[in-house]
Design goal:
- By secondary structure, the protein is α/β, with parallel strands linked by helices.
- It has four domains: 5-121, HprK N-terminal domain-like (Udp-n-acetylmuramoylalanyl-d-glutamate--2,6- Diaminopimelate Ligase, Chain: A, domain 1), CATH 3.40.1390; 136-240, Beta-Lactamase (2-Layer Sandwich); 249-389, Alpha-Beta Plaits; 400-483, PucR C-terminal helix-turn-helix domain (Arc Repressor Mutant, subunit A, Orthogonal Bundle).
- It contains 16 helices and 14 strands.
- The chain has helices at residues 5-9, 61-73, 92-100, 114-148, 157-169, 220-260, 266-275, 296-301, 331-344, 359-374, 388-393, 400-418, 422-431, 436-443, 447-461, 468-483; strands spanning 17-19, 32-35, 49-53, 78-82, 105-108, 173-177, 180-184, 196-200, 209-214, 284-290, 312-316, 319-325, 350-353, 380-381.
- Strand 8 and strand 9 form a beta hairpin.
- Helix 2 (61-73) runs parallel beside helix 3.
- The radius of gyration is 39 Å and the shape is elongated.
- Mean pLDDT is 85; it is low at 151-155.
- It comes from Psychromicrobium lacuslunae.
């Protein structure tokens, strides 16, 4: 600890004696010793110094009073006046002014060198500095060990690191990402700029990660170095977590893709699903998160809110899939929570919800339900009864994609060559239940133009949109193309 004026007075070998009645700063830590013979030393002081002088230029009462006022304005903790040089005792005018402004005055005998006082203060400051440095290094070691140790209270990782940080700084800590709480030593708290200190944590990603510390802090000095070091560790660990999540989601995605496309032997399916954390014997549902292609890389490594701790996340065909046990609760509420979180991350998504089914076939059904729901384009799309198209797509035994390509291929090629918009006309015709008037109005066309385009569609594909059987074939081909 830095030494105080009262501690110096208590050292008999110095022979110091307190003069006057001022005691306000006797217990204030001395930041440094300033020896001066200037009449106005204020410009050279930064505060909390002990001012030592022999009063060589303080020969008048007016000069002595000005000196005290300048020292007081500079925030000094006191004046040490050396006698036996130009003054046999502390001048009465200086002492009276010091009492008036509550500046303690200490008489320093002739035989006590100023250097001895300065050395004591410097040694005390050095001891305090090394004590803080040792505490800082010990804190750094504890933080690093807690991050890497699996045997700690929180099992290692970010949670263990932040738990240790809370113990060291003596205040509550919260880690947020995209304004969602990732970890908190005070669950349910809502950090704000008034009662909490925000510390941005850079990870090289646009993830709006913030570490909050609750005010006040017991030790401001140690806190700064400790928090800076913890921020650095968090930055590296969170960046590493992004890579681990991406790798894990690609691995889980490969397993799910094999299950969805029935490319695994029946005997291996259950074991492969359990290997990525999915229990095929329980009912599971899927959330499919569709995002713009430019955001898919960020989506593949993004951390999820704690509400999704029980979910298995995977990336299939560039889309994020979350497999949740049906026992986790309201899937619609979970999807809305996820949508808000991703919106805060700056990722516009369309989330499709699949139904809850058991076994690998159930995962396929849930996936195609979710995939079809996501095409509705809302932020959160509730599951609907599985359509004939999705049921057929869930079975790899039916070559629907080949059928759709063969059926619609001539229209796509004709549109590409002639900019004819036959496919757009067909989609509108089927969506509007075959009403020529409605199609003409929707596309701003004459009815005869619509009739002509429909005849072209029939000629190119061999399927007449006016016939029910052919209409089903065309509708099915369009649905498969949209979902695939």
């Amino acid at each position: 600890m830095a030494i105080t004026l009262s501690a110096l007075l208590a050292k008999p070998d110095l022979g110091l004696r307190q003069c006057g009645s001022a005691t306000r700063t006797l217990e204030s830590p001395i930041a440094w010793v300033a020896v001066t013979e200037l009449e106005n030393p204020q410009p050279f002081l930064s505060g909390a110094e002990l001012i030592l002088t022999t009063g060589a230029r303080l020969n008048t009462a007016a000069a002595q009073r000005v000196f005290v006022r300048q020292v007081q304005r500079a925030g000094a903790v006191g004046i040490g006046f050396g006698i036996g040089f130009g003054h046999d005792e502390v001048p009465s005018a200086l002492l009276a002014e010091a009492n008036r402004w509550s500046v303690p005055v200490v008489e320093i005998p002739y035989q006590t060198p100023f250097l001895a006082i300065g050395k004591l203060v410097a040694d005390a400051l050095s001891t305090e500095h090394y004590a803080k440095l040792e505490a800082l290094l010990a804190g750094h070691q504890l933080l690093a060990q807690s991050l890497l140790s699996t045997g700690s209270e929180h099992g290692g990782g970010v949670a263990s690191l932040l738990g240790t940080l809370r113990n060291i700084v003596g205040t509550e800590v919260v880690l947020e990402q995209f304004h969602a709480e990732i970890f908190s030593t005070l669950p349910g708290s809502e950090p704000n700029d008034d009662d909490w200190l925000p510390v941005p944590v850079p990870t090289g990603k646009r993830d709006a990660c913030t570490l909050w510390l609750r005010r006040p802090f017991p030790d401001e000095g140690v806190r700064g170095g400790i928090v800076d070091y913890a921020k650095g560790l968090l930055s590296v660990e969170l960046a590493n977590q992004v890579q681990r999540r991406q790798d894990g989601r690609l691995l889980a995605g490969q397993v799910l893709q094999d299950v969805l496309h029935s490319t695994l032997p029946e005997a291996d399916i259950a074991a492969r699903l359990r290997g990525v954390g999915i229990d095929p014997g329980s009912k599971n549902l899927l959330l499919l998160v569709a995002a713009p292609e430019r955001k898919r890389q960020l989506l593949s490594g993004i951390a999820l809110p704690p509400a999704f701790d029980a979910a298995v996340s995977a990336v299939v065909d560039g889309e994020l899939l979350l497999v949740l046990p049906s026992s986790t609760g309201d899937s619609s509420a979970s999807a809305r929570t996820l949508s808000r979180y991703l919106h805060g991350a700056g990722i516009a998504t369309s989330i499709g919800i699949g139904g809850a089914y058991a076994q690998a076939k159930g995962l396929r059904w849930s996936y195609f339900e979710a995939k079809e729901a996501a095409t509705h384009g809302l932020e959160v799309n509730e599951p609907e009864r599985l359509s004939l198209t999705s049921l057929l797509l869930a079975s790899e035994d039916v070559p629907l994609l080949d059928m759709a390509t063969e059926t619609l291929g001539p229209l796509l090629e004709f549109d590409r060559q002639h900019h004819a918009e036959l496919l757009t006309t067909l989609e509108s015709y089927l969506q509007l239940n075959g009403s020529l008037a409605a199609v003409a109005e929707a596309l701003s066309l004459h009815r005869n133009t619509v009739r002509y385009r429909l005849s072209q569609i029939a000629e190119l594909t061999g399927f007449d949109p006016a016939l029910t059987a052919d209409r089903v074939q065309l509708w099915l081909a369009l649905s498969v193309r949209r979902l695939s």
